[in-house]
Write a structure and sequence with these properties.
The chain has 98 residues and is an alpha/beta fold. 21% of the residues lie in helices and 30% in strands. It has one domain. The longest helix is centred in the middle third of the chain and has 11 residues.
């Protein structure tokens, strides 16, 4: 179990895409599929995986909607830190600006 003081790191990937080569840079503690209700799953897992990274595979449109509903760009793949203060994007090799 991770540190409860630290944010969880959610790695959000479209379910129909190829896993990115940079994913191995993260120490992934869990992988989950969200065929629907991706936001609910992400919220639940972010509480469970504080201080750790987890991957969520879901339909691209659902992940984009979840990101935008949290005030973030809908660009995928996305890496976000999640804690009680909200969601924050994390730079990663697959980011549009990278």
């Amino acid at each position: 179990m991770g540190d409860l003081q630290c944010p969880a790191t959610a790695i959000l990937l479209p379910e129909d895409g190829v896993l990115p080569s940079w994913l191995d840079r993260f120490r992934v503690a869990g992988r989950f599929s969200a065929p629907h209700d991706a936001g609910v799953l992400i919220d639940e897992k972010s509480d469970e995986y504080r201080g750790e990274a987890f991957v969520v595979l879901a339909p691209m449109a659902d992940l984009m909607l979840v990101l935008r509903s949290r005030g973030l760009p809908g660009d995928l793949p996305a890496v976000v830190e999640i804690d009680a203060d909200g969601w924050r994007p994390v730079d990663h090799p697959g980011a549009p600006s990278a």
